[in-house]
């Protein structure tokens, strides 16, 4: 197994849950200052949480989509903050919400200078159009992850659902890039 010399930092976790109770969005919007609600353009209410800084989409069905957090512990904090705000408008949540991570976005570096033209030719599942965007898009199939790779070795990874998948994806990426670079003679 290739040891990963990559380093990364989680930038955003998108998670969903259901409160299993209907939420009166108009009432929530009228009573809470940290909300945006425009049902003509979008059926959900945006609830902004200051600490940890995040945004939650609240739907009348009681479904929530939480974005902006950097850990599952933060997601739990945010969901608790939402439940506390709902209590103020007499919506009492009695079940413990089951949180499902939908996507993790991480940024980092593999500490290598990359010839993106070469990698686009050598590696499968890549898209590279430098006139459109300076990064190479690389799709890893197992585990499912998508990388944006830049010539300075910086990267963004999206699509993983937990830290183990993220770490394994980073190791796979490094292994695949190094295998491709073995063919690069310059």
Walk me through the topology.
Layout: E1 7-18, H1 25-31, E2 35-37, E3 45-49, E4 54-58, E5 63-69, H2 72-88, E6 100-109, H3 116-122, E7 126-127, E8 136-140, E9 145-149, E10 154-160, H4 163-181
Antiparallel strand pairs: 1-5, 1-6, 2-3, 3-4, 4-5, 6-10, 7-8, 8-9, 9-10
Spatial gap, N to C terminus: 26 Å
The CATH topology of the largest domain comes to TATA-Binding Protein
Coarse morphology: elongated
- Average pLDDT, rounded to a whole number, is 92
Please trace the helix and strand order, writing H or E for each element: EHEEEEHEHEEEEH
CATH class of the largest domain: Alpha Beta
Which characteristics define this entry?
single chain; 186 residues; alpha+beta; TATA-Binding Protein; 2 domains; 10-stranded antiparallel β-sheet
Descriptive overview:
The protein is α+β, with helices and mostly antiparallel strands and 186 residues long. The protein has 2 domains: 20-96, 2-Layer Sandwich (TATA-Binding Protein), CATH 3.30.310.10; 103-181, TATA-Binding Protein. 27% of the residues lie in helices and 33% in strands. The chain has 4 helices and 10 strands; from the N terminus they run βαββββαβαββββα. It has helices at residues 25-31, 72-88, 116-122, 163-181; strands spanning 7-18, 35-37, 45-49, 54-58, 63-69, 100-109, 126-127, 136-140, 145-149, 154-160. It has a 10-stranded antiparallel β-sheet with strand order 2-3-4-5-1-6-10-9-8-7, covered by helices on one side. The chain is elongated.
